[in-house]
Design brief:
Blueprint lengths: L7 H6 L8 E6 L2 E11 L10 E7 L2 E5 L3 E4 L4 E4 L5 E16 L17 E2 L2
Parallel strand pairs: 1-8
Antiparallel strand pairs: 1-2, 2-7, 3-6, 3-7, 4-5, 4-7
InterPro entries: Cupin_2, PKS_Associated_Protein, RmlC-like_jellyroll, RmlC_Cupin_sf
Protein name: Cupin domain-containing protein
Pfam family, one: Cupin_2
């Protein structure tokens, strides 16, 4: 896959479900994932890794226990490892995630929104 050019907009257009990340590509030990978000996710942490969110389209709130982080198109925010957070999107958001291979979207919370990583194309 590293030899192929990938288009972010085309990858996002292929996603039909919210909160189900798809691997766009990988670099070293990290996955670059595209995802559509809408509604409120689950409160969770990633005890062993940071998580980078980059908004492509829409407005995303990353709820933290002590504040809300508001993000718009082209904004980037890193949730430090071990920090409890809960993404929320009133309207549909298109985003990119950068995280180590094997990172589970619901972190330590598990539950119905836990996604098996899907491949695009």
């Amino acid at each position: 896959m590293t030899d192929d050019v990938r288009n972010i907009q085309a990858a996002l257009a292929a996603i039909g479900e919210h909160w189900q990340p798809h691997r766009l590509t990988s670099i070293n030990d990290y996955d670059v994932k595209v995802v559509k978000l809408q509604g409120e996710f689950v409160w969770h942490t990633h005890p062993d890794t940071d998580e980078l969110f980059m908004v492509v389209q829409g407005e995303l709130t990353i709820q933290l226990r002590d504040r809300d982080v508001l993000m718009g198109p082209n904004d980037v925010f890193v949730v430090p490892k071990g920090v409890e957070h809960c993404p929320k999107a009133v309207e549909e958001v298109h985003a990119i995630l950068f995280e180590p291979k094997g990172t589970v979207n619901t972190g330590d919370a598990g539950g119905d929104l836990t996604a098996a990583l899907r491949e695009l194309g």
